[in-house]
Design goal:
- The chain is an alpha+beta fold.
- The chain has one domain: Elongation Factor Tu (Ef-tu), domain 3 (Beta Barrel).
- It is 28% helix and 23% strand.
- It contains five helices and six strands.
- It has a six-stranded mixed sheet.
- The chain is globular and about 40 Å long.
Length: 141
């Protein structure tokens, strides 16, 4: 582990959605990150399942070089309340974080349908009912 990692309390959250590009949107807001003491340019450790990755916090995908990870704090009118997104600039973060292994699926890298199935399995493990998952799918389009 790097000495650059910000020494603040951990934030435990769930995955809100996974984009077709493999970006992982979390169920935490930029405001909640700030309240916990995190800010742009901090380096954080992200853990999903057994996989860990260090990344800087940024305000956009281009805050990391091509192929490098970034935790984006997306704010502004186009983002509503704001989103926290784990991304790999010009890459697939879900594949890099090995979500298939973390959630026990046979997901192929970059396969959006398998990513959706992976997210659905995660929601079921978290206790969400089939009806609630279907309602969420309708809301997310």
């Amino acid at each position: 582990m790097s000495d650059n990692i910000k020494n603040t309390p951990a934030i435990h959250t769930n995955i809100h959605k996974i984009s077709r590009f493999g970006n992982i949107t979390l169920m935490v807001s930029p405001e909640m990150m700030a309240e916990a003491g995190f800010e742009p340019a901090d380096v954080i450790l992200v853990r999903i399942g057994q996989h860990e990755m260090e990344m800087p916090i940024g305000t956009g995908y281009n805050d990391a070089d091509s192929g490098e990870p970034v935790c984006c704090l997306l704010t502004g009118p186009e983002y509503g309340p704001g989103w926290v997104v784990l991304a790999l600039n010009a890459g697939n973060m879900a594949a890099e974080m090995e979500l298939a292994k973390a959630f026990g699926t046979d997901m192929k890298s970059g396969d959006g349908r398998c990513l959706a199935a992976c997210a659905e399995r995660y929601l079921r493990k978290a206790g969400m009912s089939s009806d609630e998952i279907q309602q969420l799918k309708r809301c997310l389009g």
